[in-house]
Amino acid sequence: MCLGIFMLFSSFSFAQDLEPRRWTPLPLSTQIFGIGYGHTHGTIHFDPLLNIRDASVTVNSFVLQYLRPFKIGKKLARFDVLIPFSIAHWEGYLNDTYTTVNRNGFADPRLRVSINFIGPDAMNPKEFQNCLSEHKVFTVVGASLAVTLPLGQYFNEKILNLGQNQFVFRPQIGFVHHWKSWSYELTGSVFIYNKNENFSDGNSKKQNATFATQTHLTKRFKNKTWASLSAGYGLVGQSIVNKQPNHDDRADFLAAASLGFVLAKKQSIKLSYIRTETLKDIGADLNSFILGWSVLF
Q1: Cα–Cα dist 281/237, whole Å
Q2: Which CATH number goes with the domain that contains 106?
Q3: How far, CA to CA in Å, does 76 sit from each of 24, 122, 198?
Q4: Can you list the residues of the chain whose pLDDT is less than 70?
Q5: What is the pLDDT of residue 135?
Q6: Is 263 in a helix, a strand, or coil?
Q7: Burial code of 98-113, b = ≥16 C-beta within 10 A, e = fewer?
Q8: In Å, how far are 7, 204, 236 from 201, measured between CA atoms?
Q9: Domain count, the chain
Q10: How many Å separate Cα 40 from the centre of its chain?
């Protein structure tokens, strides 16, 4: 049962990770603050040996995010922080007994630093607007390192938790090519986990690396509205508990559609739908609906 639960959280986290316009450059002297709401529900497919059937999950999450661009030399960089709060409900039959579990609390926050190696240099807003008007076709190539901190709600005596009780390091590289009102984006990531020494009543758990890729095609309109279609693929490595491999590696496919539009002069709204499908017998099939509001100041 422990392994299936960990699988669920890995899949849920990855499903939320499709992020269009990830590498779009921003002018200096700007900051972005955002609030998001996400609703995820779906079915969970456990290893048959665990004797769990008809399992499902519903998660409502609220997220605070802050982003600020800065410069390293002449290169454009950015820092962002994400703080999630989740209300989760699981239900299903364990050994033919109907069971429900609820958790409410903060999940693990994430810090991330990014830098664009190729593309527009760091500029103030006026220089940035002039650059965009003069260059209708350009490419951005960047890299980042994100760190998920083990600060979320975690009970070592329980199997279901909102936090993972382990650091997650995520190097990422990607590019976006802009031409006129279109852009195409491709990003690759590796999730590297440190060992959880206090997993389920003092057991030790190691999680092998996860490899993920995502791609986006975005159309921008004259009224500053934009729409994107996205796809992603993830290979989740097996977990190892007390040095015993669990042979629970997984593969997930994701598809998404997003729409963004300006609400006021410096405010915008983003709507997204994400579908996650497991490509193996063990995994989760999830539907996610996301609403985000952000303000530029």
Answers
A1: 15
A2: 2.40.160.40
A3: 11, 4, 40
A4: 1-16, 49
A5: 80
A6: strand
A7: eeeeebeeebbbbebe
A8: 18, 9, 24
A9: 1
A10: 13
